[in-house]
Structures are given as C-alpha cells and as structure tokens.
Design goal:
The protein is 32% helix and 11% strand. It is an alpha/beta fold. The mean pLDDT is 92. Keywords: Cell wall biogenesis/degradation, Hydrolase, Signal.
C-alpha cells in the first residue's frame, strides 16, 4: 500500500468513526387515529376541561411533559393510545371526557422516536396543561426503568422542539400538580386531579443536567 492510499484509508476510518458517534436526529411517523371523532372530542375537551373555545384541535406548545407508559412494549403502548375513544377500563378519568389519552411522541426502549400526532395537534396526557403541552411517552415503568437510549432520545427531542417552538418548561408528569394556581394551569374542575409518579425524579434530574444550557424552566417551586 503506498502512502497516499494509506492516508485515504485512515481518513475513511476517521470519517466512519465520527459518523458512528454523531447519530442523526430522526423520528418515524406512526400515527394514532385522528378521525373526526377524535377531533371533535379534542375540541370539546379544550372547551369543557380547559375553558378554551376554538374550532381546531390544535395547541400552541409552551411546555414538554415527559411520561412513561407503564406498558411493557411499544406496540401495546401504541395500541392503548390508538383508538379515539377511551377504553371502558379507564373509568376513573372517563367521567372527565371520553377522549382517549395520547402523546405526540412515543419513545421505544432502544431510543427510537415515533411521532404519533402532529406536534401541534391536541393530545390528552396531562390534566390542566394539554392545551400548551407536547407529550413524550417512553415505553417503560417502575418495573422497567427508562434506558440510557431513551435519555439520549428525550434530550435530542427536547433540543429539536425547543428550536421550533417557544418551549418555556420541561416537566415530568409527576410534577404537573406544581402548576395548580399558575396562569398556565387551566382545568375547570379543581377536584379533577390524579396523582402521577411517572417518569420520576431520577429521570428528570438526569434530563435537566443534560439540557441546562437551554434555559428551560422546570416544576413550579412553591
Ligand atoms: Zn404520564
């Protein structure tokens, strides 16, 4: 092998190894049903629950809410969010609306990001804040803690969304009640509250450490 060829090979290896360490940000579309029924139920939810009257099922994102699905696989998690109407099993929240829960993004355990709804479409995933919050569901739960690949994916997703929208807050679902009394919290029934534990302080602490350069606020400190 002559010197030039050796140099070319070395450059090739360097380029290849650099590419391996800088993974391209990408999302895959895996849309949940967004039919006329889901649209109308979303518009009704905006009016009845948030007190916001508008004729489109859209949001102006100001916040990102991170979750875990408490469901072990991606397909089962997707299947739970796919129908427009809440399944009969979730009677606890069915009284508030029959709109099914969903999140704009679903992140698998290997860090692959799926977009289930347009980023500015309305999704029911956090009481009081849906109208301004993009939801990110992560496949996992207390028995299958979120992975480092999911941490990487959530960080990349937050960075991507922050560039596109005026994101002021990133919170864990378990922190949403800190917004009660804050101007952003809009829920017409003060008794409609659920206690959440996802995705937990450990995950949120790690995320906040990673995004501290972004100047994004977290839970409201009372
Ligand atoms: Zn949640």
């Amino acid at each position: 092998m002559n010197f030039n060829l050796k140099l070319l090979c070395l450059c090739g290896i360097l380029l290849f190894s650099n590419a391996a360490f800088t993974q391209t940000f990408r999302t895959f579309n895996k849309p949940v049903v967004f039919d006329e029924e889901r649209k109308q139920l979303s518009i009704e939810y905006l009016k009845v629950r948030h007190g916001i009257v508008q004729d489109s099922a859209t949001i102006v994102p100001k916040m990102i809410v991170l979750h875990w699905t408490a469901i072990p696989t991606l397909e089962q998690s997707f299947d739970a969010m796919n129908p427009s109407v809440l399944p009969g099993a979730r009677k606890g929240i069915a009284g508030a609306s029959s709109l099914n829960v969903a999140a704009q993004f679903l992140v698998d355990r290997d860090g692959m990001i799926f977009r289930q709804l347009p980023e500015t479409a309305f999704a029911r995933h956090v009481i009081g804040l849906n109208y301004c919050a993009i939801g990110v569901e992560n496949v996992g739960g207390s028995n299958a803690l979120l992975t480092d690949a999911q941490l990487d994916a959530n960080e990349a997703l937050i960075r991507y969304l922050k560039k596109k929208y005026k994101i002021e807050y990133v919170i864990g679902h378990h922190e949403y009640q800190s917004f009660i009394g804050h101007p952003l919290f809009k829920e017409t029934d003060p008794n409609y509250l659920t206690v959440k534990s996802d995705p937990g302080d450990e995950f949120m602490n790690k995320i906040r450490e990673r995004i501290k350069d972004l100047d994004i606020k977290g839970a409201i400190k009372k």
